[in-house]
Design goal:
single chain, 625 residues, alpha/beta, 7-stranded mixed beta sheet, 5-stranded parallel beta sheet, 18 helices, 31 strands, 24% strand, binds coenzyme A, binds adenosine monophosphate, Propionyl-CoA synthetase, AMP-binding_CS
Amino acid sequence: MSAYLEEYQWSQTKPESFWKAQSEKIDWFESPKTILAKDENGIERWFPDGQLNTAWLALDYHCEQGRGDHIALIYDSPVTLTKRKYTYNQLRDQVAKVAGMLAENGVAKGDRVVIYMPMIPEAAMAMLACARLGAIHSVVFGGFAPNELAVRIEDAEPKVVMTASCGIEIAKIIPYKPLIDKAIMDSRWKPEKVFVFQRKEELAELSHERDVDWQEAVDKAKPHACVPVQSTDPLYILYTSGTTGKPKGVVRDNGGHAVAMKYSMKSIYNIEQDDVFWAASDVGWVVGHSYIVYAPLIHGCTTILFEGKPVRTPDPGAFWRVCNEYNVTALFSAPTAFRAIKKEDPDALLLEKYDLSKLKTIFMAGERLDPPTLEWVLEKTSKPVIDHWWQTETGWAIASNPTGIEMMEVKPGSATKPVPGYDVVVLNEVGEEVPANQQGFVALKRPLPPGTLPTVWRNHDRFETGYLSQFDGYYVSGDGGYIDEDGYLFIMGRIDDVINVAGHRLSTGEMEEIVGAHPAVAECAVIGIHDDLKGQLPLGLVVLKDGVKLDELALEGELVGKVRTEIGAVACFKHALVVDRLPKTRSGKILRRIIRQIADGEAYTVPSTIDDPSSLSEIERVLNH
Ligand code: COA
Ligand code: AMP
């Protein structure tokens, strides 16, 4: 039997024995006696009576083991021309002081802390400081506008907010403080304090009574020890796009998460403690939570926090430069990042300047790895390129080539096989498993493994209705796909209103709410259409109210501006076209899938339930125009 099959079968036939063995690889304050039990909502929970602290596992534990001088974190910032290294001792000491600052300002176990920060080491310190106190952090991606931040502040009700004076994008500085002030003004919930880390590129005005200068407060603070928490206590809430305008607060617990993070570093990424792991992502996304901060540190290796982009900081050789300079063992990013490099340096000429001999593997996730990108990276780097599929909700890969257990054959377009712990099935509309190669709803049989979400923050009903109630005993991923005759999983895309733009997860439903609120708009549809660089881009189609006459270009400008103000630049909403009517079923459901197929030039079948077939020619006319 293959090593993968043996491990996979153990995880499926004796999940408690399998996860007990994995749990023994982390340093609990109180080892769990119960491995799996159900909570008050009937949801399976891992290690419920165990006690631990995630910051302890990520920092103090390694210092105690005599590895305090090992490099924990490398900060590389081409946008500020800064490079800095922190040993485990140094990072632990800094995090203990930031935790002290929070505690002295009233933050305690269970309190929420919203973190809105650029990619600087203080962002990771803020997260770990919360973990140290048992406080629950909620990091909000810097590309989101104040309105999105306000929604998250209202939902999480944070005691304090942590931020920096600015973020730095390609050739532009983004002052964060005015965004924070606006979000707090618009939110019904008011945090008591706002800690601002001043960056010399743009200082913030600390004019409000609640504003605190981060560095001054940290300098005065006493280091705080790790507070023991229950395995099932939340470590963080991370909001992600769903089908409506209101984002979902994915809850992550401490114990299951720590065990899953530790397990994944070896089994999926094949990383040892002396290796250097680089997830080229952002701490605002789940990839950043799991693989910039928690997993590499819990594993005791070196992580890289990169404040730059794959291109234009300063050139498309940035990824290769960082891999060379720090002897990166495994690089993880989204396919869109490599498409950006390929666009600007198609022959990968810059690659020749650098030595990538230490780089063992390149991992990709966040969106489908299209075969041309896979082939380009393979050909240019001669490294194994591993596609793996996961979601904010799961926190770690559901399907992957398990490189630390057994390197399997790669099939282009497939994320390979289910990771041990996950029972992946493809179901039809009535919840029956479909035969090999037939597409359907990709679902996970419960119990989900450790690390996956147990609920949606303060809205358990949304967890039940959004994920669990469609098929009894299964979690529905929201993705469609199929499993082939060899058991390889192919994810074909979302079957709901979620799209992926440059590896960023966004809700077209939310964009529709904003576009539809315009006084001239009677109804609208926002769909994700194919884009060679970003994978998908949103496109709005609007029907005007009867009698409304206006300049369509001016309307487009207004709608684009509105989405940018309310969601943020990251939405990349650039086009809104006026149509006479939208194709619908007789029951009034907009046929978004067909609109997308027309926009992408794909063949489509007209459903028998269509209300007015001529509405399709209208869409073709406008899109071809
Ligand atoms: N703070 C503020 N603004 C941000 C931001 C942040 N953290 N991140 C992105 N934005 C802004 C950008 O500046 C841009 O603004 P503009 O419309 O004024 O130009 C807009 O949001 C769109 O950003 P993006 O879609 O990222 O486009 P880009 O041209 O700046 O970069 C890529 C394109 C492909 C290089 C970039 O998206 C990338 O590196 N993607 C990898 C994605 C990734 O890491 N995903 C995480 C999962 S692994
Ligand atoms: P996020 O929650 O931002 O990580 O986005 C999760 C979604 O991204 C998934 O539901 C998929 O639609 C998509 N996704 C992530 N990884 C992959 C992958 N390897 N292949 C295909 N789609 C992916």
